[in-house]
Design goal:
By secondary structure, the chain is α+β, with helices and mostly antiparallel strands. The chain contains three helices and six strands.
Length: about 120
């Protein structure tokens, strides 16, 4: 996805956390926030969802980690991970146990880069 990114962001993988977003300048925060929102909308469309599940405002209010694959001036894909509370049973007649595993919450690769290795 072509978008303007902060000049400090180099090609590779960028790990976005709430703490990183707070450290950026307002201008860089706006640019990165717009890129996150655009990628969230593309993910929503690709999955047939009614609303984005990855947004800049959501990243500011949670402890998730967002990994962005960055090309030269482009965001190529994203994967967002975070803990979620799940209730599991070992057998159908046992009690539920609460677990909090690290889960993939959203995943998207730009269409023109999919299936290219």
């Amino acid at each position: 996805m072509e978008c303007e990114l902060p000049h400090s962001i180099r090609p590779g993988v960028l790990v976005v956390t709430r703490e990183l977003l707070k450290q950026l300048t307002p201008h860089d925060t706006r640019l990165l926030g717009e890129a996150i929102d655009q990628m969230g909308k593309r993910s929503m469309k690709a999955q047939g969802l009614s609303r984005p599940i990855t947004t800049y405002s959501q990243m500011m209010s949670c402890d998730n980690r967002l990994f962005l694959s960055i090309g030269r001036g482009t965001v190529r894909g994203l994967i967002r991970v975070g803990g979620r509370q799940l209730f599991l049973r070992r057998t159908s007649d046992s009690d539920y146990t609460k677990v909090s595993p690290l889960c993939v919450l959203d995943f998207y690769v730009c269409e023109n880069l999919q299936r290219s290795g």
